[in-house]
Design goal:
single chain, 717 residues, six-stranded antiparallel β-sheet, four-stranded antiparallel β-sheet, 7 helices, globular
Length: 717
């Protein structure tokens, strides 16, 4: 995409770019070499883009250095908004810069430069500082432009080869237009039809739609059991799918008919090349969001025969590689499987042999692997779109650098299928609308006293991780682009009723936490490494680094007194809770679980902490002393209980609960073990996260998100 301060106006608008866009960027570099800063950089990327599009750079004549007028003219021409008014080639820039370099060499006095030739010579006085710096600038720029010229010649002469090596999506057509969610598309072997899952009638069912003009979709399942992830058999006769309510892997004739269960557990089926077996992940899906990981520990890869006469066979082993194993895809020869590996953080793609041996990481960050029909390529998605990398047919190892087929805008590409001839692709483009909501609560009974109310109203950003200030008057939260973009985002601030929204960080930040006086915020950032920074809300001064965790952690919570931090770490082998002073020093391990105990939160008095406990495919809630000690389990439910905060009196722990396929806000009492559901959401394509109880007891703020999307088809060129 580009580095924002160096983007040309046409690139910032998403328009076609050519070598004149490179000339703009080089002009920015030259300006920065002279002045010491880029000409358009502002407080945030958004402000910088606005400046690039609407403002002129501060004139070089105002620079502390006395810049020659001819050099001012060169830079100004390179930075003209309209590309037709810039230099049209790097060669023209090079000629003018070489002429100016000659003028520098012709200096007649230590503090003057002669500009022009013949009888039109003008002597301009300049500082010695500029002369010294100028010689370096021009020497460097001439070398840069010589290299750029060589590159341009190479790029033009290799244009045909680039097109072959860097495929793109063309002829993109939207196939479905349902305002709800169409997801998990699969192409028939002859590429004449797609199968997908949709909530057309309120429940998710499997549909088939011909790609011929005027073709009408056919509903394949109609059992109301929430069916997902259909995939065609190689002969086109069957569709395998995952049934959320009934559980496990099922197959049904592709023209419709009676379905048959082949495995009583698992999700995300994938047919072997000969159609005799199905690989699948052991854990069900819990989230249809655009950024959802396919699976978490302890999900593993299994294989079952199509006829279902023999029990499924486990292929991968827990911890090899570390994380949950999911979304399997077969290689063309059936010797390898590409799988996603997730562990409460980024998802990577690994290649394993058919029997699970010798796992090798192929892609450090990616989702949804799919082998190309040539057996020599692997496709996958990231936050930024669809990618392709060449691989070895023998080992499955990647060869060379990946190339990008498409880029995401406001929608996130998730789930796709490649036709047998490699010329067509179908995919789902998902949009997750995520905002901060609150539900009013009775301080006396802890029961909801009204319907949920939205505090933010964004459509292109994810708003998450709300945290009330100690006086309950303000909410700090995290905002990030919902689909492409950074996974870290920035910290924002608003009043408890959603008014006076203010951006606090501009260079990345998440997991905000309040200091006792409500005048400072701590937040986690990856600017240099994983560090805890502090923002002073009273002075508006820049954030200052305090605590460097020294490793890639993904969760941190500041104590109520502002002196300690709880965080997740896998330094003991599995995810556990650790504690460290905000001043630094040696961290202390608080939990010692072999599966997972993490995502801790503080009680209001700081004496207790709540933790999530992972047992098989379920998570539950426990409580323990903040200085360490035994964990007392409070819930024992099937599903997910994702903990976030305590009630003001410290008795109740509020969490995002996943029960019977739906997410809602719930709490559990540590004294009575009573549980209560606070919200009543019913949509499978929605989720709630990070509930935070106001210190006043009258509000619970949380993230609520809904995912919508449709199916698209494109040609691969």
């Amino acid at each position: 995409v580009g580095t924002v301060p160096y983007m040309s106006p046409e690139q910032a608008r998403g328009q076609e770019v050519d070598s004149r866009s490179d000339i703009w960027s080089l002009g920015v570099v030259l300006y920065q070499m002279i002045v010491g800063r880029t000409p358009f950089e502002d407080k945030s990327n958004t402000d910088t883009l606005a400046a690039i599009l609407t403002k002129e750079p501060p004139p070089l004549e105002r620079s502390p250095l006395e810049v020659p007028p001819e050099l001012q003219r060169i830079v100004s021409k390179m930075l003209r908004k309209e590309k037709d008014q810039r230099y049209q080639s790097a060669k023209d820039v090079l000629i003018d810069l070489q002429d100016q370099q000659k003028n520098l060499r012709a200096v007649s006095r230590p503090n003057s430069i002669e500009i022009g030739s013949g009888t039109d010579v003008k002597t301009v006085t300049h500082s010695k500082a500029f002369l010294a710096k100028g010689k370096f600038i021009f020497g460097a720029l001439v070398l840069l432009l010589l290299a750029a010229s060589v590159f341009v010649v190479w790029r033009v002469s290799n244009r045909t080869q680039q097109v072959i090596d860097n495929p793109r999506l063309q002829g993109i057509v939207q196939l479905t237009s349902w305002p709800g969610l169409d997801i998990h598309p699969s192409l028939s072997p002859d590429a004449n039809a797609i199968a997908y899952s949709s909530d057309h009638n309120g429940n998710f069912e499997i549909y088939v739609k011909p790609l011929t003009p005027g073709g009408r979709e056919i509903q394949i399942t109609n059992d109301g059991q929430s069916n997902f992830q259909p995939v065609w058999s190689p002969d086109g006769q069957w569709l395998a799918y995952y049934s959320k309510n009934q559980g496990g892997i099922w197959i049904v004739p592709s023209s419709g008919g009676k379905a048959k269960q082949v495995s009583q557990f698992g999700a995300h089926p994938a047919w072997s090349p000969d159609g005799s077996e199905l690989a699948f992940q052991s854990d069900p899906i819990t989230d249809l969001g655009a950024q959802a990981s396919p699976s978490q520990p302890p999900s593993l890869i299994w294989i079952v025969a199509k006829n279902g006469t023999a029990p499924p066979k486990q292929i991968t082993q827990l911890g090899h590689p570390a994380g949950g194993h999911g979304a399997p895809a077969w290689s063309r020869d059936g010797k390898h499987l590409a799988i996603c590996v997730s562990d409460y953080g980024a998802t990577s793609i690994w290649i394993i042999e058919r029997d699970g041996r010798e796992p090798k990481q192929a892609i450090k960050y990616g989702f949804d692997p799919a082998y190309g029909p040539d057996g020599k390529s692997l496709y996958y998605t990231t936050l930024s779109g669809i990618w392709k990398t060449q691989i070895s047919e023998d080992t499955g190892a990647p060869i060379g650098e990946p190339t990008q087929l498409s880029s995401s805008s406001s929608e996130r590409i998730r789930g796709f299928a490649i036709s047998a001839d490699g010329k067509k692709i179908v995919y789902s483009a998902l949009l997750t609308n995520s905002n901060i909501w609150y539900v009013p609560i009775s301080p006396a009974t802890s029961i909801a006293t009204g319907n949920p109310i939205a505090l933010t109203h964004d459509t292109t950003f994810r708003n998450s991780l709300p945290v009330f200030s100690p006086d309950g008057k303000r909410i700090a939260f995290n905002t990030q682009k919902a689909n492409p973009g950074s996974s870290e985002g920035d910290v924002w601030l608003m009043d408890h009723d959603g008014q006076r929204v203010t951006q606090i960080t501009t260079e990345g930040g998440g997991m905000p936490g309040w200091f006792p006086g409500a005048d400072r915020l701590a937040f986690l950032t990856s600017r240099d490494s994983k560090k805890l920074w502090i923002a002073n809300l009273m002075t508006g001064q820049d954030s200052t680094s305090t605590l460097d965790f020294g490793e890639d952690i993904n969760y941190a919570r500041l104590s109520p007194d502002g002196k300690q931090v709880l965080f997740n770490s896998k330094r003991s082998g599995t995810t556990n809770v650790w504690k460290v002073s905000i001043e630094g020093g040696n961290p202390k391990q608080l939990t010692f679980d072999n599966e997972m105990e993490g995502f801790a939160c503080w009680s209001p008095d700081g004496k207790m902490i709540g933790v999530q406990i992972k047992r098989g495919g379920d998570t539950n809630i426990g409580i323990m002393p903040s200085d360490g000690g035994p964990v007392t389990q409070l819930t024992f439910d099937k599903g997910q209980s994702w903990l976030s905060s305590f009630s003001p009196d410290g008795d109740k722990l509020v969490f995002a609960g996943f029960r019977e396929g739906v997410w809602n806000i719930c709490w559990v009492s540590r004294s009575t073990r009573e549980q209560k559901r606070i919200t009543n959401y019913t949509r499978l394509n929605s989720f709630v996260r990070y509930p935070n109880w106001s210190p006043l007891g009258n509000q619970i703020a949380y993230e609520y998100a809904e995912t919508t999307g449709n199916i698209w088809v494109a040609d691969i060129k």
